[in-house]
Amino acid sequence: MQKLYRKKARRRDSRFDNRLLLYYNFMKEKPMYTILWQVHGILMTAAFLAMTAGVIINLRFRGKKWRLKYHRILGGGGASLGLAALILAVVMIQSSGGYHLRSVHAVIGALTFLLMMTVPALGASLKKVKNKKRVKKVHAALGFTVLTLMVLTIYLGLRYVGIL
What we know:
By secondary structure, the chain is mainly alpha-helical. It contains five helices and no strands. The protein has helices at 2-29, 31-60, 67-96, 104-124, 132-161. Helix 2 packs antiparallel against helix 5, helix 3 packs antiparallel against helix 4 and helix 4 (104-124) packs antiparallel against helix 5. The longest helix is centred in the first third of the chain and has 30 residues, at 31-60. The radius of gyration is 20 Å and the shape is elongated. The two termini are 30 Å apart.
């Protein structure tokens, strides 16, 4: 019984090793693509963390005067980092000769980006609109939707490159 278990464990390890070998060979052949891909992932992770921190600050510190200032900084910074990551993704796909929006990750990522740009615009428009309560609710709902879509997009991206 133990020999059978060991064979299965070796089989899993060899598949994992083969996956790493394929990843290494792919990255060795296209070093510029590798760098762009890694920077894209870092920028998107930073955007996600900044936007999450902005939401947490807004929810946790309701009565503080500084809350709105840091909520704006983190939300705007997260959107800016997301824009940089999207531009990098477009450059990466263009330089590799691939087609845009061909994967589920890319399509949901583009939708997330559009919503990500809408959320700060709604927040900035709060000073000028008459029905502030409704706009605040839409702003909050879209903010949570963006964070949820970001988690889904990160998961799909990690599956797409073979990490998960």
